[in-house]
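Incident review: delayed structure delivery

Summary: a single-chain prediction request sat in the queue longer than the usual turnaround. Root cause was a stuck worker, restarted by the on-call engineer. No data loss occurred. The affected request and its eventual output are reproduced below so the record is complete for anyone auditing the incident later.

Affected input:
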Amino acid sequence: MIRSTSIFKRSENRQWAGLLYVLPFIIGMLVFKLYPFMSSFYYSFTDFSLLRKETFIGLSNYVYMFTKDPLFFPSLKATFLYVLLSVPGKLGFALIIAVILNMKLKFISLYRTIYYLPSILGGSVAIAVLWRSMFTVDGIVNQFLISIGIPAVNWFGIPSLAIMSISLLTIWQFGSSMVLFLAGLKQIPKDMYEAGTIDGASKLRMFFSITFPLLTPILFFNLIMQTVNAFQEFTAAFLITNGGPLNSTYLFGLKLYQDAFQFSKMGYASALSWILFICIMLFTIIAFKSQKYWTHYEDGGKF
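Output delivered after worker restart:
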């Protein structure tokens, strides 16, 4: 009986110790995640700025957004176009580089480090400013085009080229997706390729019949993560184009920032943030619902 009581006390002490260890995380989650999340929902129904107390106005922010705000739909259009350009480009490029880096090459560790560097530097202000200088009329990109006989291009003066230019900055930061693809390639059993070789399959056939199907779970994960990040992009649109020309790069993150901190419309910005949240949530639900048609799991399960 005494021994059972002692064991019970030790187990109870371990539980309390475990709770103490996770307590900072729980407090941080409640203070910095859940409270702002719920507060923004309340403020989205108010007329609120940082300089005065909020006034409850019901659905007025949402009605104004869909009926009177001249920049709401252009920002949505620019954001969706940016997602459609940047995410497939980034994942495609990451997959190609990962396949190349999975080959037996000299100095392969050096190459992997070099290709990962853009992901470390890409989100910085300095790189955004550098990117802007590269694509100006007299920038290094146009100088290269002129050197091979192609006329200079006004990258930031034509709407379709401006959104493509800032999408290229995101595509250039493919390192994190590439590392995940590379880890997936390492997990593919070599005997599957040996069987394919015996059957006379070409390299291209083995890629589409073995490599790509087995990488679809990682492709699914990368698709979710990169799309969520793309919907929230702000730095490139703010520092490189400031939303121009003709609002072609006026991304939703930039609009949200301007309404909140330049025009002091925190209530309206909260409503915008919930629309962005709904867009991301809808995409995530569609992606999870569709994964059973195009992802392959060894055990037949789901992500």
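Verification: The mean pLDDT is 88.
Action items: add queue-age alerting; document worker restart procedure.
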